[in-house]
Amino acid sequence: ADNEDLRKAVAYGIDVDSIIAVAAEGRGKKATSFWGWNEYGFYDCGGYEYNPDKAKEYLAKSSYNGEELVLLSRSDISYADSIMTAMADYLNQIGIKTRVDMVDTATMNTRRTDGDYDIFMVNLATWDGNALTQNLVPRVVQDMHSNGYKNDELNAKIMEAFGDMNKETRVKTLEEVDNILYDLQGPIVPLMQVMRSSCVRKGLTGLIENPLSGYIFTNVTVEEDYLK
User: Fold this and answer.
1) What pTM, to 2 d.p., does this model score?
2) Over pLDDT 90: what percentage of the chain?
3) Taking a C-beta distance cutoff of 8 angstroms, is the pair 84, 100 a contact?
């Protein structure tokens, strides 16, 4: 939880563009912010470019001693096994030993509650466009996933934004929060944002997708080939 150099080694060591090609059939965008670009308070932090040499430099500076890191994900997420295999391979290439655990939802929830993981990957939909209520307060300040990561400055800024009713100053504070999260690479780091929903990609037509991943239903049909 407190190994910043190791987290940055991971950030530089994974080619997110290749993950997008597998997981979103190319219909995605590399994340450059803690939250999606359509969410309130979005701020482009630039992100981390794939750079295995720099990843190895940070790994050498870290306290990593060759121990095996467990990459945890849910088995019911589309493409999750391919994503985790690719991530493990990238980390192996820079010198990090890994093991991939694909588990059911109940096991995932138990292990996150217990803090029994090194890195876990999930997909996360945004229902209200508010990173404070969905991510920042429960997952960072309250540590609902027991990652053990704590940054008092970060938590104070999150709660400042949470209690600020002034839209302009709240957005400014969220920009500061976003920069801290990306600079420290923790405790949650988005890899990518999928630009189209799976139901649209797989043949469902007549859906209008709004910017926050909700839907307007019109005359919905399914392509005949897909039903077969």
Assistant:
1) 0.78
2) 43
3) yes
